[in-house]
Amino acid sequence: MAIQDTLAALRADAEFMRDVTAWERAPEQPARLAAWPARLRPAIVDGLRRRGVDAPWTHQASAIEAALDGQHVAVTASAAGGKTLCFQAPILQALLNDPAARALLLFPTKALTQDQLNSLSARLADCGLAGASAAAYDGDTPQGQRAEIRRNGRVIVTNADMLHLGILPQHTKWAGFLRNLRIVVIDEMHAYRGVFGSHVANVIRRLRRLCAFYGSAPQFILASATLANAREHAERLIEAPVTLIDDDGSPRGERHVIIVNPPLVDALNGIRRSAQFVARDIGARLVKDGLQTICFARSRQDTEVLLSYLRDAVSTGGQGERGGLSRRLSRR
């Protein structure tokens, strides 16, 4: 069944529409392209073109230009909006310009860390930096490899907890890296909110203080999905003025955003139907219509429960796949 048929069926379903509090349609948006910044090294541009990236989207070009100016940059764009290139290109430029330069990337999950590490390794090779070491440094890094990574790692990918517990307290061992640290990337910055966000802001403050002690002043590049207060959030995290790039030039198809409020099952006590059951019913309907469907949940346990519900609802016989990564796969 075509997705338009499913949408039409949902609109005609009085029971479903009873719980819909908002239904917005975002029209298709074509890509908006720009020229590569003139200061970007030809080796980087040539490597990207060999990968099929002939020209950047407008927000990528603006972010790279601002980063090459030495500004702290925050980039917000939709999912699959090419935010990675916004910080990879400046990192490659810094490494090509200075053989001693180092970069540090912070990601909230190991899956993102491994994905970024693979992407960075390919980019380094594409622009003639195959000998430059890019490595993950986290709780799973073998003890025998850590000293080598500290000494020779030009790009280190880690997380805020490891920065707090495993790097900054051992700063004397990291003196060479901190002295030459040029760029710090904070990806998925929207994840750093509340008490955890306050903790990360203090870790970043400590990182900047230690860098100053060793004679460096790294540039920060932050990336996120769209946020209402992206500049304010970024500036509170790093405690410095930030240039915001939020004019997303990436292409995207038509989107329907439907907000469903689970119905009341106990009006007296304000108890509503489980959101898991609502997600199950909607997800099962889409799957039965032959539509590719992704369901997100707040935790691995919620994901497992929702998968179990969906399997029962669509009678797959256990053929569905869970969205969480095992420890073994997350380390690959």
Write a brief caption for the model:
The protein has 332 residues and is an alpha/beta fold.
Notes on the protein architecture:
The chain is an alpha/beta fold and 332 residues long. It folds into 2 domains: 3-27 and 254-330, no CATH class; 42-245, 3-Layer(aba) Sandwich (Rossmann fold). Helices cover 46% and strands 16% of the residues. It is built from 14 helices and 11 strands. A 7-stranded parallel sheet has the order 4-5-3-6-7-2-8, sandwiched between helices. Strands 1-9 form a two-stranded antiparallel sheet. Strands 10-11 form a two-stranded antiparallel ribbon. Strand 4 (133-136), helix 7 and strand 5 form a beta-alpha-beta unit. Helix 4 runs parallel beside helix 5 (83-97) and helix 12 packs across helix 13 (300-314). The longest helix is centred in the middle third of the chain and has 21 residues, at 194-214. The model is unreliable at 316-322 and 325-332 (pLDDT under 50).
